[in-house]
Structure formats: structure tokens, C-alpha cells
Amino acid sequence: MSYLDDIAAEYEIILSKTFIKDKFAELIKKISKKTQKKVVVLIDEYDKPIVEHIDDIEKATKNREIMRYFFGILKFSELNNVRDITFSRQFATLLGYTQTELETYFESYIQNLGTVLEIKKPVLLTKIKTWYNGYSWNAKDKMYNPFSILNLFMDQRFSNYWFATGTPTFLMKLIKNTELDTTEFENKKVSEILFDSYNLENLNIFVLLFQTGYLTISEINQKTRTIQYILNYPNFEVKQAFMTFLSFTKNDLGDIQPAAEDLRDYLENDDIEGFINIIRALFAKISGKKNVSVFILVLGF
Prior knowledge:
Layout: H1 2-10, H2 20-35, H3 48-51, H4 57-71, H5 99-105, H6 107-117, H7 121-132, H8 146-155, H9 161-166, H10 169-178, E1 188-191, H11 205-211, E2 216-221, E3 228-232, H12 236-247, H13 253-268, H14 272-283, H15 294-299
Antiparallel strand pairs: 1-3, 2-3
């Protein structure tokens, strides 16, 4: 409520409505009237109040109803039909950086990073692509994650930026509760019809992972009666972090990453005994035997 009043104050507008939905509508109309321009409402992470409480269906459902009530006013006048452009071809490169945009607008940053890391430009570009490229909504155009790219150039080192700062704990718990093998998150076929529903009581985990950015479209099969999407991890940043978080169910993440570095060092120095000892210690805390492949990813091979 106060946030709407703050926006109104910026435009020197006074809002008189009491209820938040009415106040939102009043704000839009008065801004349009004062500026003599159409108002564009951009909603970022619209599903966050729902997704963050997926493990509490009652609260998630309540938040959904509040959001439906609040954003319902957007369906007045010419906005009677809100269009979902997720899979629209003309908007496939709207979000994120394309390869051309990366090399054009960040040329000086790329050169500087290459100097700092002592990596030649062609090799550096390949590494950047492996770590942060791969998001796609049409299985053709691949986009870079802006958040990770900006942090890469700012910190001048490769790291799991987006995953580390944006992954809610509930999501990890939800995935672990499904008892799915981490390899099942690759080359997963999902029917188009699943994207049209958001059933909180019986939520499809793969659709959720796509909607929250942890899986992306790598292939589209239009030969079937219903379009089939093939989902995969978008890049190394997400895949490595995912495997690390999900596979070591009883190991603290603070112990996992140092252990991974030790494992790499032992292999590089042909110290097989040291390598095996760490593996034994980690696997002693793992429930189940489905996650052996995680070591390859944690090490970065």
C-alpha cells in the first residue's frame, strides 16, 4: 500500500482510494492522465510469493488469491486478455544477452578479464559460454544470464553467482523429497499442456524448475499431437551447483566445495589414496547410491 503511495508521490499525484486493488487502478489511470502517455506495468518474478511457499500449500494458495485480486485490475479497458509470450518466437531474445550483444557491449570487459586471468580471448569466450550461456525459449537462440555475466566482470572470476544467491531452500527440499536421481533432470520430455496449468496441489517438478530458471528448453518436438519440450540444465553454473546441492543430502555445502578442490588436487598429483579417502568420507553420509556421477561435476570435469 505504501509503495503505491510512494510512486504516486514521485508523480505528484494524490491517491484517494482505500483498498489496494482500487488504489493500484487509480494510480495507473492518474499517471496516464498526467503524462498523457500509456502506462506499461512490468512485473518481475510474479510467481515468487507462490513459489517460495510451495511446501506450504495453504499459504501458497492464499498468496495466489491475493495476487489474482491485486493484478486483476490490469484486465480492464484494452487489457482484457493478458498474453503469455514465453514461447513466442518474436520474443525469444528479449531477455538475457545474445552472443553478439556480449561481444559487442562488453568487449573492453572481456579483454580486461582475459588479461587478469591470463586467458586468450577465444578460450575465454568459450569458457564464458560454457558457464553462463544456454537459456532458451525456442531451442535455437541461446541467451546469457545477465546477473552472472555482470558479476563475472565485476569480480573477475568464474563462480556460481545466480544459483548461489537465488536458490530458495524450499526448492532444494522439494526436489530431494521427490527422490529423483539428479540425472533425471537432463533430457526430460515435458508436454506443452503442462505449462498451461499451475496446480499447487499436484505441481509438476520439471515445469516448476523451468519456470524458476533451473531448466531450459534444448529441443522442441512438434511432430507429436501435443508439442513436446526437451528440458536440460542451461549451463555449467547451474548444473554443477545443482548436483552439489542435491547429491550430498547429509553433507554440509561448506564441506563439499573444499573437498571437491582437494579431490581435484589429489588427481592432478596422482594421489589415489588421498582421493579415495575423501570419497569414502563423503559417501559415508550419503543416503542411497544414485548420486555417484556427482563427483565428476563437482570437480568440474
